[in-house]
Amino acid sequence: MDQRQLQSRNIEKYDLKLKSRPKDGVILQLHHTVRDSNGKNRRIRFSSGTFDDLHEKLACADNLGNIFILDFTDLKFWKLSSVGTCTALYFLPNKEDILIVANAKKYDISFLDIDNGETNLTLTGHTAPVKHISYSNSKYNNLLTASSVEAILWELRNYTKYFTLNTYLDAQIQQIMFTPAGDYLVACFQNDTVQIWKNETMKSVKQIIPSELKHLKNIAFTMNGRAMAMAGLTPMLILFSMDTWKALKSINLTKHNISGAQQIAFIPQIFDGGANKILAILSSDCTLHLLDLEILNVIHSICPDSSCIKRFVISPTGKYFLCILQLGEVNIYNSSYVMDLAQNISDLKKEKLCTSMQKLARQDVSSSKAEVEQKMRICMDSVRLRRILMQYGEYPDKFRSIIWRSLLNTPRNRNAYSSLIDKGIHPAYKDIEKQFTIHSSVTLKSLKRLLSCLAHWCPLFGVMKFLPAFVFPFVKVLQKDPLLLFECVATILLNYCQLWFEYAPFPPISILAIVENILSEHDQQLLDHFCETGITSQTYALKILETAFSEVLTCSEWLILWDHILSNDPAFVIMAVVSYNIVQRNAIKRLKTHEQLENFFRMQNPIDKKHFLKNAYVLLNDTPDDIHPKRFFNTFISLDKGNCYQQFTGYPKATICMKLAKKNRKMKLQNDGNTLKEMTILNQKIQISERSKKENIHNKEKINSEDETFHKLINKNNMKSIHDIQDNRDLCRKQNIDTVAYPTTIHIQQNKEHSGTKSNKKDKDYICKYSSRSKTKKKSNGKRNANLEKEVEELIKIYKNSDLSDS
C-alpha cells in the first residue's frame, strides 16, 4: 500500500481490497513507501499494531508515528495525523472508535478519535516508554499501562491513578496484563518470576518461580482465563492452571525444533469454548509455529520468504492475526485460511511419509554407527557446547548425559568395564545399605556396582570413606547407563580430584592450602572470621568437596554447577568452593559458634546461582598465577580406549596397603569366632585365677601381720580407724589383680606414688592408652602381629611390582 498525501482535517478514506482465497493465508500486506526530495523511494517500517474485533478494525503505526486504520467491514483504510513515534497501541473496549496511543518521547498516553484524528485526553505519569496496555473486563474498568520499570492502574471514571507498581533493576517487567475475566493482574519479570495480584484489592495472591524455565519472556492466557502458558528463551513451555494454582504440564520444545520462545499467544478457535488448544510461538529463529497442545504437534510454521518475523499480534476472537516483519512490512492473516492450509499440509506430509517409508523398506541402506558417532562428536565439540552454556546458563536435561559424555571424552570400553563387573561386589561395599538409607533398590544396586568397579579398578577407592557420598548424585543422574556412569566418575576422579589423595587416608593438605590462599586473596575478612571461630578449611572446603556440593545445593543447582565444572579446566571446582563461601559471606558472618558453622556447610542454603557461577568465573580469571590451582594441576586426561583402563596412581601405596592388611586380618579374626579383645580377656582371667591360688597360701600370714599392725596403730595413734585398714586391705588385693591385667600400668603408678607426684589428666589418658597394650596381649598375640607385618611387606612388594587394576 503506497503512501498518499492525506490532510489531517478532512480525512479521506480509500478502498481496501483483500485476497479472497490466499494460498498462504495472507489476505493483505502493508508497506509504507515515501519519495524523498531526491526522487528516491524510501521504506518506512511498521512497529506496532492492534485489533478491534467488535468493529472489525485494525490500527498500525510506523516508526515516524503515522497511524493507519483499516476497516475490514467497509473495506476502507485511512491515515491519521502523526502524533510522534509511538510504542504501543490499544483499542479501548466499550468505547467506539477510541484508540489509546503511547508516545515514545514524552511517555504520555493519548486517547485518539480514529474518525477525525483528534486527541480527546492525555494521561501523564510514566518515566519510561510504555510497552504494555491492558484493560480489565470487570466491574472496575481499570486501564493498565506499563513500561519496563513501572506499571500504573488508571481509574477511567475520573482518569486518575489508582495504583502504581515500581520495580527494581534486576526485576524489570517483561510482560504484564489482566486475565481475560479481569479478576487478576499477572506480570512476569526479568528474574524469571511470575507475580499474580487480585484486581479488587491489589494484594499478592501467588508467586510462581518455574525452576525448569529460564530467561522467561512471555505469558499468555486462554480465552476463558483458566489456563496460562509461560515460555522463554530456553526450549521449555509450561502450562499452568489458574483454578488449582498448579502446573498442568511441561513441554520440551526441542522435540518440535523450537530452540526458544520470544513471544507466545493463544489463537481462539470456533466452538472451542474458550479453552484454546492452538498456541502460536515465535521462536528464537524468527519463525512462527502453531503448536496443537492436545496432540503436542506443530501443525504449521510460518516463515515468509521476504523477511523474518519480528513480532505478531492476534485479534481477541482469533479471527485475524498479523506478523510484523523485520524489513518493516505487515502481513495480515485470516486464521481460518491458515488452519485449512495447515490441515492440507498435514495430510500431504502423511502421504509423503508413507511413500518414503515404503522406499526405505525396499532399500537396505543404513549409515554405520561409527559414522553417526563421529558426526555427533563434530557437532558437540567443547567450544560449541561452551557457547550454548554461556548463552543459556545450563545444558538441556534431555541431552545432559550425551553432553557430559562428549565433554569428558569417555571411551565406551565395554570389555574393560565387563571385566570389572565380573569381579562382583567388592567386600568394602557389601553392606553399604547399612551406612546409607536408600529407598530405591535400583539406585542402591547402581551405587554398589559403581563403587565395586571403582574399588576393583584401584584399591584406594575401597578404603576412602567419603567416596559413596561423592558419587551418589552422579548415580542419580546417570544410573540408566552404567558404563557411562563409571567412566564419567572415573574421569572426574582422574582429573577434577587431583591432589585429593596424595596424603590418603589423611585430608588433602595441598588442596586445602590452595583454597585458603585463594580465599585470603579475594576475601581476607571472611578468612579472619573463620580463624576467629576456630573453623578450618576442612569444614568450609573439604566437606563441600567430599560431597561434590550435593549437600549445599538443590538438585537443579547441582546439575547447573556441574555443567560449568565439566565445561572448564579442573581448577574450576576449587574456584566454585571459594565462590560459594564468598557469596554466602553475609550468612556465614552471622554465625559465631563452631557448631553453627559445621551445620551450615551440611545443609542447603538459599543462594543466587547466577551470582555464584559468575563469581566463580571471576575468581578463575582474576586469581594470581602463583596461587592459581592450574599451576599445580595437570591438563585434562581422558580414559584410554581399549581393553583396559589406565592405572590410577595419585596416592601413597604403602598407606593403603597397611590399611588393607589390617582389614584382612580383622576379617580373619571375625571368621574364627574370637576377636583379639575376647582372647585377651580370657587370658587375663586365667592368670588372675592362678595368681589368686598362690595368694591364698600367704593369706593367713598377711592377715596376722595386718592384725599386729592394726593393734600397734591403735596404741600409737587413735586417729586411725579400722575402716582405713580395711581399705588398705582392699587396695592391696586390687593391686594384685591389676598387676596381672595391666602390669606396665601398675609399674608406672608405683613409680609415681613413690616419687610423690600427682598424675594429671593427660598422664591418665596416656596410661589408659598405654595399658590397652598389655604384656598378656603381647605374649598371646605376638605371632599374630608378626604375621600382620609380614602381610604388609608382601602387599607392598606386590603393589610395587604388579598392575593395581588387577588387584
From TrEMBL:
UniProt keyword list: Cell projection, Coiled coil, Cytoplasm, Cytoskeleton, Repeat, WD repeat
A cellular component annotation (GO) from this entry: centriolar satellite
Domain Rab-GAP TBC residue range list: 394-569
Span list, region Disordered: 750-791
Main location: other
Cellular compartments annotated: Cell projection, Cilium; Cytoplasm, Cytoskeleton, Microtubule organizing center, Centrosome
Ranges of biased composition (kind: Basic and acidic residues): 750-767
Gene3D superfamilies with a match to the protein in the record: Ypt/Rab-GAP domain of gyp1p, domain 3, YVTN repeat-like/Quinoprotein amine dehydrogenase
Secretion signal, residue range per the UniProt entry: none
InterPro entries: Rab-GAP-TBC_dom, Rab-GAP_TBC_sf, TBC1_cilium_biogenesis, WD40/YVTN_repeat-like_dom_sf, WD40_repeat_dom_sf
Compositional bias of kind Basic residues: 772-782
Biological process annotations from GO: cilium assembly
UniProt protein name: TBC1 domain family member 31
Organism the protein comes from: Galleria mellonella
Gene name for this UniProt entry: LOC113516294
